[in-house]
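Marked as duplicate of an earlier ticket. Keeping the data here for the record.
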Amino acid sequence: MDLPLEPSLNNIAEGGEEPGRLAGRSLDEWNAAYAKVERYFHALRVRNKIHLNRQVIHVLKRAMRRAPNEPDRSASQLAAEEMDHLITEWFAEVLQQKATGADQMLSTRGRLALLLADMPGKWQDQFLRPGPWPPEFLDAMHKTYLQAGPDFQLSKMTARPLDLGPITTLTSLSRLPYWNMVIAWVVFGAFLILVFILTHKS
């Protein structure tokens, strides 16, 4: 879905913006960022086109506010970060959980809770909306968030000796590797010589 962005986003651009550019980036770059955010929301099964378009534009507006101060970052990078921040902030409000920049568990378990609560089928219009939310939606989200996975526990694995199989038996019989094989070939060679001598005796 490649939409023209100017009508929705021109209010973000500062005066004197070059034609074909918004917030210091080309329209092609912003269209690529739009497509990336849209695909992400599609993965969460957000299908309502009006709601989808509104949320994608909201993410891009947040990215455009950062763009002039971060010229080394692409529009897609900024949009992806803002999308993740927006969703994590929303989960923190809905689930009454503390959101921290380093903790990805809230975002991961929150997205799983959305699917377990059947957000795409029942609550699509509530996705990323500010509160208050319907009590049924909050109840479903809290229950599925708890089901989304127990806390991770660190486990300790102790190293075990490496089993190399029959080769260890072969090499343990002598200090030199494959010594038994060498002896076998010498005996076999001597046997062939003996047979040759016996058969060619005049």
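See parent ticket for discussion. DSSP finds nine helices and two strands in the chain.
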